[in-house]
Each structure stands twice: as structure tokens, then as C-alpha cells.
Specification:
Layout (H helix, E strand, L loop, with lengths): L3 E10 L5 E10 L2 E20 L5 E8 L10 E2 L3 E8 L2 E8 L2 E6 L9 E3 L5 E10 L15 E3 L10 E2 L16 H14 L3 H14 L6 H15 L5 H14 L6 H14 L3 H14 L5 H11 L7 H14 L3 H17 L3 H14 L2 H5 L1 H13 L3 H14 L5 H17 L3 H14 L5 H13 L7 H14 L4 H16 L12 H17 L3 H6 L11 H13 L3 H8 L9 H17 L3 H18 L7 H12 L2 H15 L5 H14 L3 H18 L7 H12 L3 H12 L5 H17 L3 H13 L6 H14 L1
Parallel strand pairs: 1-12
Antiparallel strand pairs: 1-2, 2-3, 3-4, 3-10, 4-7, 5-6, 6-7, 8-10, 9-11
Helix pairs in contact: 1-2, 2-3, 3-4, 4-5, 5-6, 5-7, 6-7, 7-8, 7-9, 8-9, 9-10, 12-13, 13-14, 14-15, 15-16, 17-18, 21-22, 22-23, 23-24, 24-25, 25-26, 26-27, 27-28, 28-29, 29-30, 30-31, 31-32, 31-33, 32-33
Length: 784
Amino acid sequence: MLRVFVCCAFIVVGIGNALEVSINYGKQNNAHFSVLNLQHDEPFECQALSNTYGETTRIVCVIKQTPTASFSPTSTIFFKFWNRVVDGEFYLYIEPNFSAKLFNIYIDLRDEVAIPKERPKKSKKWQVVGYKDHFPFLSSSNAPVDGLNFPVRIAQGEENFVQALDINRTPLEFEEGQDFIYYLAIQDLMKNALYFDAIKMIDETLRTFPESIFVKDLMYYRLKVLQELDPQENADAIIDMGTKWVKRYPTDMYVPEVLYYIGNAYNDIRFGSESKYFFDRLISEYPNSRFAPLAKMQLAKNYYGLSDSPTAMRLFVQAYQEAKDLDSASMIALNWSEFYIESGKKQDAQKLIDTLLSAYPQFLGENITKTYNFIALLAENEMWESAAKMGELLFAQLHDDMVLARDEVLNKAALYYQNANQYEKAHELNELFMQEFPNKAQAQEVKERDDKMLFFVGVDDDAKKIERYDYLIQKYPNTDIAQKATELKSQILFSQGRYNELLGTQNQELAQKSYFELIRKAIESKDCPKIVEYFAHYPKDKFSDEQNLVAFTCLYDVSLNKEAQELIEGMAQAQSDTRKKLEILYYEGKNLDKLGMVKQATLASRDVLSLAQGLGESRRYDIGFVLFKNLIALGNLDEAREVYTFLHKHIGDDARMIDVDLELLKSAQTQKEETSIELYARDILRLQRLHKSSNGTPYVELALGQSYMRLGAWQDSNAILGELLQKDITPSTRAQALYLQGSNYKNASDLTRAKESFESCQKLQGAGVDVWQNLCVESLKLLN
């Protein structure tokens, strides 16, 4: 009788419109087969790769989209499949464990119709049939010679759907078998962690149906129950059953898990070498198994207290990094934390515990005994906060029928919070205890402990005092208790130098003292951002000139010139030391210049230059630039020229001289002082070359070029204009330079070159070229 069983085994991969992968199983003449169905909303290509004997060795499917999610490598009885992303494309690899054939499904296969030989390379649906010796269900219909019949007949309305799967995710087939009913019931018991009921039913089923097809699965479940109930008590049974099970089913997908159980059992009876053998075997033979990292964890635990702790550390690191899921990673983190605690490395243990509690708190409720024992270890080592947090999380996950365990866990968590000086949390859990367990014997004890804690302030440790004061402030707001607690806390904070925390206090005197201390520290370390931040509370009269000058420099550097002037105002006049007076005046002159106070800046910078020359302080000569700028602003050109002469003599190569030359060049050009024009322009060009600067271009080249034109030095003019035309200039400037160049050639009777310049000018495009182009056009007409 033909039977095809369809199971609910689906994998959905996030690739745009999701790729669905479903697996169907069946059996014919006691021979199993499997059909792997691939379906996507868009057509994609699959290709079967064969060996020299024509046997399919691998099937590769490509979807030209980048997945948003993927799936882990998976194995069934007939197939292994995994995926990769290459250049943004999703590749699915299917490798048959026995034999397989690939079919392009682009028509309805529910009818016995021939599949044409000419098939497209892409399809929305593909099917892979996996089998052992013979291809299943060869069709008996007579297919025409020009077609190919699909080998599996799936007629309308004849499918049997079975929802239950065995441990290998294979659909289950039965013929009115009572053992199947038991099997389903055992699955439910295992799923709900009812292990005592499960082991009773497993034993009953094995006695009643010793030849059942579910023997392998039932024995596996029995091993799992023994491991879950009391692995130490059941160690001998786990070793005996597990060893036999692995020998009988060496290729089963659950072999790594069973090897892990055996290794743990040997550990429990102190047979270290046998335990190590099974863990090593698991790691070497099944390195990609979920249990390989757990085996490394167990091996690491064997080094507790031994001299070879680096080996234990290496194994823990490997196990943690290679963990396949959050549950495994959490188990490894917990055991690793135990190792750290026993090694005296509490901070390292704390990091792992914090990660566990943040990433997977559900682990605590799923491993109650392990968690409970670990909390006790934390308490023994006075890691109160972690013990309290774990106890609180465990309490929230315990079942209602575990009343005794729940009240004990909650009571200890509250006590641990109190030991950690987290009074608010301790009080919160104490109140919860009295609400949840008002009739428990410990309820009165908890109430008394909570009352004492509320008024417990007699501690010598400042940190504990502050925690206590914070609790009282929050617990009793707007009361004398809160006010007193605030005052006491503020005094401790000030004595500890925690000034930032006092800036917002209502005690204004203490707040101002805190600002003073913060500014003083900032000045000492020349921390300009902090000085600027706190300047609104700056007490100028409480600092020395040297300190105020440091603050002034910080304000000046961030262009807070008005505030900077407040600090330096009058400081120079009160200074008797000439050199210090020079330094203060120097900064004040520059700051007055920034403020645009022309007369004051002129007076200050003139005094600085005079003092600097008298003292031979050449490093202050650059104040001359400030003096020159402000003399120009006042229209004092004669003194400005004197300052220029001084600057040119002493720091004439300074890049800032370009701006000085430019000011005087403009003045000379206005007066048509050709000699001065050449002097300043030539100096600017020299400084440009020296500093690789374009400051002053094109003004200086045009001014000098036109000056030479006025003097009839056509060749000199064109030399300067030629240099200008080699630079990156605007179209308008280029047009002007070409016009002047052409005019020079025309005046020199070199009409050919004149025409070339005018024509180049005429061809230019861009903003502002019209005026010069018109002149070029008129000049061309005259030439023609």
C-alpha cells in the first residue's frame, strides 16, 4: 500500500520574500525515503553535482539576494544542508547521506502528467528525493518518449498527515500501534519536565513493547531523565545505558549529547581518566556539536585547585567562545565564574555573572538546583549584590507549587541586598515577603529586620553612609530626616573631593566652595574646557595673577574675549615687575584687538612693542602686527609705515607680513606710487613662494602688472601676468589678465601675440567675464 507521510518540518530563511524549506518522509516496502521541498516567491536556480559514476554528491541552489537571517547547519537521516553568503548572494548546499535526485517543479505534480524535457533553469519550486538503495515509487504510467514522468505519485486527497516526529525529526508511521500512543504521551511528559512520570511510562512501554520501533528514542529519553533527576545518584546507570546506546546507534544525531552524559557520570563517580576520554572523544569527533564546548567546560572544571590553572582558563575561554546557544553560554559562564571565585578573582567572576543575568536570565529558572547552589557560593564569598540579584530573579521564575523554596529564596535575597547596603531593594523584597508569605514563621523576623534597617545609620564607612543617606532621602522626601541626610551626605562628598555632585545643592555656600575647588584644580592642570565651563562662578579676587592669566588664556583661545578682558583688566598697571608687565600687556593688547577696541588696542600694543625692544624680548615683536592693523584703522599711515619697517627688519619672513604688505600696497596703488607698489608687491610674491601661499592673489599680480604698464615696462608686466595666468584664478580674473597681456603685446608692437591673448580672452566663459571680453573684442577689431 502506498503511503506518503507529510511532517510539519519547516525552515524559513530571511531572504526578502522568505525561502521555505520543508521535509517530507515516507516508507515503501520497509524502505524509508525523504523529499526535501524548496520554495521561494521568485524563481531561483538549483544544480546537481555528480561524481564519475553519475551519483549526485551535492546540490547547490543560488538566490541572488542577501539574507536578513539564516539557519545553522542541519542534518536529517537523508540530507545535510547548510548555507553561505558569497558576494551578497545566498547559497544553499544539500549533501545526500545516501542517494538523491533533483527535480525542477514548475507544474502541478498532483496530476500524472509528463514533464517536458525542455525545462527552465530556474523555478520557484525544487524538490530533492533522498533514498538508500532503490528510487521510491517509480510511476507505472506509460510516459511518451518526449517527456519524463515525475517518479513520485502524489494523488489528490490521499496524503496522510502526521504531526508527531521522533527525536531525529522523522515523521512517525504506525499501524494501530499502542506503542505509538505511549510514545506521544512520553514526549508530552518530557516537554513539560515531568520526569518522574516520564521514566515510569518509559519503563512500562519498554516492558510491554520490547520490539517497538521507538526503542532507540525511548532509551534516549530514559538517559535524559536520569541526567535531569539526579545525575550523581544515577551515574552508574547512565554510564551503562549510555555506552550501550552509543555502540548500538553510532551514527545517531544525539550521540554527542549521550557522550556528554557519560562523561559527566564518570566525573560524578570520580573516574577522571574515563571522564576525560569521553569528553575528548566528543570534542574530536563532534567539534561542531552543541556539547563540544560544554565538554571543554567540564574538562576545565577538573583543573580546579590544581597547579595547571592556565589550562583550565584556556579551556573555559574556548568553551565560552564556541558556545552554540545562550543556554550553553550561560552554563559555561556559571561554571567559569565558580572557577574565578575559587581562584580569588571575584571581579572577573562578576563580569561573567553580569553578562549572564543581562543576556539570559531565564537560565536560572531552567537550572534551579545549579542556580541555588551557586547563590550559596556567592554568599559564602560575600558577593552580596550578585547573590541578591540572582535570588530575586530565581524567585520570579519558581512555580507556585514550590512554596517552601520560594519563601526561602526570597528571604535570602532580601538579606543579601541588605548586606550589600542596597537598603531600598532589601526593603522592597522584605515587603514582598510579608505580602506573599504573611503566615510563614519567618514573617515576623523579616518585619523586625526591616524596621531595624530603616534606622540603621551607625556605620563608619563613608560609602555605606552615603548609600544610607540616599535611601533616607528617597524614603522620606520633604522631611527633616531627608534634610539632615542631605546635609550629612554633602559634607562627606565635599571632604572626598566629589565637588561635581554638590554643584546643584541647595546649600549655596557649599556649592560656591565646590565651584572654587573645581576651578582651582582646573587651573592647576590647565584644563581649559573645565575653566570655561565653570567661569560663571569664577571668583577673580581669590586667585593670583598667575592663576588668572592661565584662565585668561583659556578664555582667549575659545574667543570668549569679553570674559577674558574681565580677568586681565588693570592687571598690568598693578604689576611692578617689568617682564611680567610685558607679558600681561602682550595678551591684553591681542585681546583688545579681538574685541575691536581700536584705540585701547593701539595704546596697549604700542607699549608692548616699546617694552619688548627695551628688554630685548624678540618673541613679543609680533605684537607689531596688532599695532599696524589698528594704526591703519585709525588712519595713522605714517606710524604704520614705521611699524612695517620694524617688522620687515626683524620678522620679515613671517607669513603675516603678506597682510601688512597688502595694506600698504593698496595705499600705494591709490596714490600711484609706482616704486612703493613694486616694493610691496615684490615682497608679497616672495612671501607667497616662501610659504606656498596664495594670499594676495590676484590683487598683487594685477596691481604690479598695471604699474609696469603705466611705466611702459611691457615685458615686465607680461612676466607678472604670465605667472598669474598659471595659477588657479576665476574666469573674470583670467579675462582681465589676458586683456592686459594683449594690451602689453600691442603696445610692444607684437600684434600676433596680442591677437592670441585677445582671442583667448574672447573664448572664456563664466561669471564676470563680459566686461573684459568686450574690451578684448574691441581690441581685436582695432587689430584687424
